[in-house]
Amino acid sequence: MFVSKLRKGGVPLASSLSPAPAQPPERTAMSRVLFFPPTINGETEWISPKEDIMFQSLSELLGAYQKRDPAARSKLEIFLLYPGVHAIIFHRVSHWLYCHHLPFLARLNSQLARHITGIEIHPGAKIGRRLVIDHGMGIVIGETAEIGDDCLIYHGVTLGGTGKDHGKRHPTIGNNVLISCGAKVLGPFRVGDNARIASNAVVLSEVPEDATAVGIPAQIVRIAGRVTHYADDVDQTSVENPTLERLEALSQRVEFLEKLLDDQFLKERA
User: Fold this and answer.
1) Residue 187 and residue 173: Cα distance in Å, rounded?
2) 8 A C-beta contact, residue 102 and residue 30
3) Does one domain contain both 42 and 119?
4) 95, 123, 151 - which closes a domain
5) Which domain covers residue 61, as residue numbers?
6) Is residue 23 in some structural domain?
7) Per-residue pLDDT, 140
8) Is residue 103 part of a domain?
9) Is residue 161 located within the same domain as residue 94?
10) Which CATH number fits the domain that encloses residue 192?
11) Residue 151 lies in a domain
12) What are the pLDDT tens digits along the chain (270 aa)?
């Protein structure tokens, strides 16, 4: 009779007697921000108000620090004591708030991160996977800056603007780029994949892939046929200096001309 009543009432028998399948707990927006990578079809994507894109995993970020910092002893130490990791976690939250039209809360959170870590990242900046910030003090990253995957940035770096541009004002950094301490990259241009920017360089124009920028203003030195993977080869000393090479060439030419004049003078006296 109970079954017939269920049928008369229009309730399916199977759904009435069988328990509903358990649904996995839905990930909250904030859990996506902190623990899940922003990857679609193998490419990094940025979170937007309309697309709930997942952010990079904390585990792979800590692993990147272990590869690149010989002083790192454990992931727990990195997580608790490294300001670069803290800055990235703060920024993931700030960027989520920024993209969901909460600019005041985004800036409030980023300013809190600045006071705690000494690293200033605008909430609008787009940062890829496994960014390692070594030491970190004094780093400034502007609102329209973009940083690709597997980059390494040292203390005192500025990814800023020149004050002359509107809209896109800050640089776009490719994948696997090393930016050494004190370097300034200013303007809305691209720094290519696998590029290196030497310490205290001031970069004002595009840097090709597999190249090194050195000096003030920076000049380009290509690394012919060699792609450096900074996770295993962090080399800031074997960098060619084109300015020094030109000065040496000029010095050799002056010595040659002086010798030529001396020889001419001796011939005239003889």
Assistant:
1) 11
2) no
3) yes
4) 123
5) 29-123
6) no
7) 94
8) yes
9) no
10) 2.160.10.10
11) yes
12) 444 444 444 444 444 444 444 454 444 455 454 444 444 344 544 444 333 333 447 888 888 888 888 888 888 888 999 999 999 999 999 999 999 999 999 999 999 999 999 999 999 999 988 899 998 899 999 999 999 999 999 999 999 988 887 889 999 999 999 999 999 999 999 998 888 998 999 999 888 888 888 888 888 776 654 544 554 555 555 555 666 777 888 888 899 889 888 888 888 887
Q: Identify whether 83 is part of a domain.
A: yes
Does 223 share its domain with 142?
Answer: yes
Is there a single domain that holds both residue 102 and residue 142? no
- Asked if residue 146 and residue 76 are part of one domain, the reply reads no
| pLDDT value at residue 181 | 92
Q: In what order do the strands lie in the sheet with 126-127?
A: 126-127, 146-147, 172-173, 190-191
Q: Provide DSSP, the chain.
A: -HHHHHHHTT--HHHHHSPPPPPPPPPPHHHHHHHS--EETTEE---BTTB-PPPPPHHHHHHHHHHH-TT---HHHHHHH-HHHHHHHHHHHHHHHHHTT-HHHHHHHHHHHHHHHS-EE-TT-EE-TT-EEES-TT-EE-TT-EE-SS-EEETT-EEE--SS--SS-S-EE-SS-EE-TT-EEESS-EE-TT-EE-TT-EE-S-B-TTEEEETTTTEEEE-TT----TTT---SSS---HHHHHHHHHHHHHHHHHHHHHHHHHHHH-
- Residue 64 class from Cβ within 10 Å (0-12 exposed, 13-18 middle, 19+ buried)? buried
Packing angle, helices 83-99 and 103-117, rounded to 10:
170
Count of structural domains within the chain: 2
If asked whether residues 116 and 155 sit together in one domain, one would say no
